[in-house]
Amino acid sequence: MIAAFPGELLRIPAAQTQIISQVVFDIRFLFFYDVAMNKTTQNRRRQFFINKPFQLRYMLYVSLPLVVVCGISFFSLYVGIWSDILNSFTDQKVQEDLITATRMVQYEEVRQNTAPNNVLSVFRSAEKLGSRQREIFKEILDKANRNISIKIALLLFFVAWGTIYISHKTAGPIYHMLRIGREWQNGNYRARIFLRKWDEAHPLAEQMNTTYTVLDERFAKIKKWAREKPPQEAIALIQKELESTQTS
C-alpha cells in the first residue's frame, strides 16, 4: 500500500515513517532469526548419551580421582591442623607457655630497672602469651601446609599416571586401527584388529573386522573365479557378485 501510493507516503509525518521502517525491520529480523534457529535446532544433537556405558565409564574415570584428591586433601588438612592444635594446647604445654611469658616479662623489668607492678605484669604476661600462641598457630599451619603439600604432590602424581593409563586404553586401539587401516589400504585384507581385554572400542573393532572379512571373502571368490573359470563364465559370475555392490 505504501509503495502503491507514493503521494500518500509523502503526506505521512516523519516520525510515523520512522516507526513504520522500524516495524518492517523488526519483522524481517524475526523472520530470518526464526529460519536460522530452526535450521540450527534441526542440526543440533538432542541425545547426549550415544554410547552410555562408554560415556559413564569415562565420567567415572574423570570424577573419581578428583573426588579422591579433594577428599584426602580436606581430610588431611582438617585432621593435621586439629591434631597439632590439641597437642600444642595441652595443660602442660599451656603452663610452660605461661611460665615462659612470665619470665620474659620479669627479664624485661630487670633489664629496664622498673619496679614490678602485679597488674601490669599480668597484662604483659598475657601479651607475651598471646604472641607465643600466635607463633604456635603459625608453626601449626606451616607444618600442616608442608604435610598437605607432600600428600597432594603424591596424589597428583598418581592421578597423572592414572590419566595416562586410562587414555592409553583409547589411544592404543586408535593407533592399532590406523595401522591396520593402512594395511587394508595397501590391499592386505587378511589383516585384523586385535584388542586387549580392557581396551576400549571393542564393538567398533568387531564391526570393522566383520566388514573386511566379508570383503576378503568376496575378493577371494572373485580371484578364484578369474583363476579357475573360463573367461565368459568368470565375467558373468563377477558381474552377478558385484550387482549388489554400491560404489561412488
Describe this structure in words.
This protein has 248 residues and is mainly alpha-helical. Among the domains are: 38 residues; 118 residues, no CATH class. The protein is 80% helix and 0% strand.
Brief sketch in words of this structure:
The chain is 80% helix and 0% strand. The protein has helices spanning 6-10, 14-43, 52-88, 91-111, 118-185, 202-228, 231-241.
Defining key terms:
248 residues; rod-shaped; 80% helix; 0% strand; single chain; mainly alpha; 7 helices; disordered N terminus
Model regions low in confidence, pLDDT < 50 over at least 5 residues? 1-10
The rounded distance between the terminal residues' Cα atoms is 54 Å
Mean pLDDT score? 72
Strand content: under 5%
* Secondary-structure element pattern, one letter each: HHHHHHH
- Overall outline: rod-shaped
Largest sheet: none
**Radius of gyration based on Cα positions:** 41 Å
Number of helices: 7
Structural class: mainly alpha
Proportion of helical residues: over 70%
Total DSSP E strands: 0
What's the layout of helices and strands?
Elements: H1 6-10, H2 14-43, H3 52-88, H4 91-111, H5 118-185, H6 202-228, H7 231-241
